[in-house]
């Protein structure tokens, strides 16, 4: 073989060896570790998406201030799903492929979150659902899906336990709900537990998201003889429902869900919210016995000049779980991070955080009562 041929073979061999070593590196030492976050940053649920962003940013900024993870800075890349399933899928695909994020965090709405679980399975990327409560999200057997929010089955069950304890003589329920995965999940879960206490749903009234007139539904609930009203809605529609309830002169104990557990609900509904109980995941009125939550709330207020709401708390916990899983995995690898999430435990904003076998967290539901436009501990009243 000629010297010229040997020279070129030597050059090629060195190039091939260098290329192979580059391919073997999972991420360059200077690269940022990217988390993909999606939620409703526009539309009538934008307040939820803004809270999600605050919570994630707060967790990431705290970690980056101490050196980041695995010697690299964390970077959140955001996408607006507007609360729409088809838009959520598009955003999640972009985050997963083009932006090459390590973990997906989102969404807030159940339809959007559920739609993206297929993306998580197809692209083999961990998804930590932030605020969606529909039970089916974590019961489909998808090993890539986890959740920060307590599912609707537990929310509804714990709310019913509270109703029976506080109002044992009330057993005729009028239920109004939004006709999507979120609302249907709530009414189905409530009906399942209601049988335990002999409660009867004398009226089940649904509506379409974006509706503004609920007087017909409320009139049918009144005519059915209901002595309890349960409103399973997001904050925009619920504020209108409660205003119309008051305008119609209705008078019965009222209960809601985490969809009302944002300051925006009390702002939009005004005096009509007073006297309403709702189940939620986090409230400043109910964190007295949780040192980690008290510390979180103090630091959050110093950073943002306001108290955290439940989405702030859920998104902070979701981001914290992702960060701890990356540390536990010890490498920037989606499968390794997914496997590590199964073993993550920490004291979070709502209690001791860990995922059960389905990927749901284990928390006690908080019950809040609105008094004079402010949240109060419903169990202490």
Strand line-up across the major sheet: 7-6-8-9-10-13-14
Oligomer: single chain
Task: Give the termini separation.
Answer: 93 Å
Computed structural class: alpha/beta
The number of strands is: 14
List the total number of helices: 12
Strand content: 15-25%
* Shape type: globular
Radius of gyration: 24 Å
Low-confidence stretches: 1-30
The major pleated sheet works out as:
7 strands, mixed
| Average pLDDT figure | 91
SSE pattern, N- to C-terminal:
HEHEHEHEEHEHEHEHEHEHHHEEEE
What helical percentage do the residues reach? 40-55%
Could you walk me through the main structural features you see in this protein, from its secondary elements to its overall organization?
It is a single chain. The chain is an alpha/beta fold and 381 residues long. The protein is 44% helix and 18% strand. It has helices at 3-24, 46-65, 85-97, 110-123, 152-166, 181-194, 215-223, 235-247, 263-269, 291-304, 310-329, 334-341, and strands at residues 33-39, 74-80, 103-105, 127-129, 145-147, 172-178, 200-207, 228-232, 254-256, 276-280, 345-348, 351-354, 366-371, 374-377. α4 (110-123) links the parallel β3 (103-105) and β4. It starts with a helix and ends with a strand.
Label this structure with key terms.
14 strands; 44% helix; 12 helices; five-stranded parallel β-sheet; single chain; alpha/beta; 381 residues
């Amino acid at each position: 073989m000629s010297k010229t041929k040997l020279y070129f073979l030597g050059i090629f061999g060195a190039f091939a060896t260098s290329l192979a070593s580059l391919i073997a590196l999972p991420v360059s030492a200077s690269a940022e570790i990217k988390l993909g976050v999606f939620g409703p940053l526009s539309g009538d649920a934008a307040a939820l998406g803004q809270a999600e962003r605050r919570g994630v940013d707060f967790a990431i900024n705290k970690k980056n201030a101490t050196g980041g993870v695995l010697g690299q800075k964390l970077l959140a890349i955001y996408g607006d799903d507007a609360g729409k399933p088809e838009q959520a899928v598009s955003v999640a695909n972009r985050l997963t492929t083009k932006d090459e994020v390590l973990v997906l965090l989102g969404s807030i709405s159940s339809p959007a979150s559920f739609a993206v679980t297929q993306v998580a399975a197809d692209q083999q990327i961990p998804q930590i659902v932030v605020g969606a409560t529909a039970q089916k999200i974590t019961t489909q057997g998808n090993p890539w899906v986890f959740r920060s929010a307590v599912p609707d089955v537990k929310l509804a069950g714990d709310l019913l336990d509270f109703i029976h304890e506080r109002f044992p003589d009330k057993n005729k329920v009028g239920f109004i709900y939004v006709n999507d995965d979120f609302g249907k999940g709530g009414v189905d879960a409530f009906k399942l537990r209601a049988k335990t206490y002999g409660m009867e749903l004398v009226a089940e009234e649904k509506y379409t998201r974006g509706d503004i007139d609920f007087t017909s539904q409320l009139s049918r609930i009144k005519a059915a003889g209901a002595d309890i009203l349960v409103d399973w809605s997001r904050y925009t529609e619920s504020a209108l429902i409660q205003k119309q309830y008051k305008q119609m002169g209705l008078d019965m104990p009222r209960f809601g869900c985490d969809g009302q557990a944002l300051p925006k609900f009390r702002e939009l509904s005004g005096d009509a919210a007073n006297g309403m109980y709702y189940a939620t995941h986090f409230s400043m009125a109910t964190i007295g016995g949780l040192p980690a939550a008290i510390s979180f709330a103090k630091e959050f207020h110093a950073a943002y000049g306001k108290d955290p709401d439940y989405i702030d708390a859920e998104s902070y916990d979701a981001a914290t779980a992702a960060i701890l899983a990356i540390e536990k995995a010890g490498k920037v690898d989606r499968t390794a991070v997914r496997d590590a999430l199964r073993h993550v435990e920490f004291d979070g904003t709502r209690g001791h955080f860990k995922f059960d076998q389905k990927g749901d967290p284990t928390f006690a539901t908080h019950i809040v009562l609105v008094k004079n436009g402010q949240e109060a501990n419903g169990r202490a009243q």
